[in-house]
Amino acid sequence: MRLTQMSNSLPLCFCFFVTFWTGLDVETRLGFGWTPLMYAVSVANCNLARLLLDRGASANFSKDCWTVLMASCTASSSEDKIGHCVELLLSRSADPNMVDR
Q: 1 pLDDT exceeds 60?
């Protein structure tokens, strides 16, 4: 694994650890006020996003007018991975018209 890949996955690994092994709620706010789902979709990790959604994470969470769907659409990844995450979020009732609540 390259150093850039490792540094990009560190926040995601931290989210996974905090959420699942410490028993914290999947809606826990981490750095920048983001939930673990926001971090997962921001790197197009569809498998972790699915796991978080299955455990009750909100597909409609937003922070500072930035939604989970927006984070997914602007992920640093391939179009295929981004597309899978966007499809997953939409299938879990993510509102594409939502800006902030």
A: no
What is the domain-level CATH number for residue 68? 1.25.40.20
- Report if residue 97 sits inside a domain: no
Q: Where are the beta strands (DSSP E) in the chain?
A: 62-63, 66-67
- The model's pLDDT over 14-73, given as tens digits with 9 standing for 90+, comes to 656 655 666 778 877 877 788 889 989 999 999 989 989 998 999 999 988 899 999 999
**Per the domain annotation, does 7 fall within a domain?**
yes
| pLDDT-based confidence at residue 74 (cuts at 50, 70, 90) | very high
- Which residue bears the tokens 């699942």? 20
The total number of structural domains that make up the chain: 1
Query: Would you say residue 100 lies in a domain?
Result: no
- Rounded Cα distance between 62 and 12, Å, is 18
**Cα–Cα distance for residue pair 52/71, rounded to 1 Å:** 15
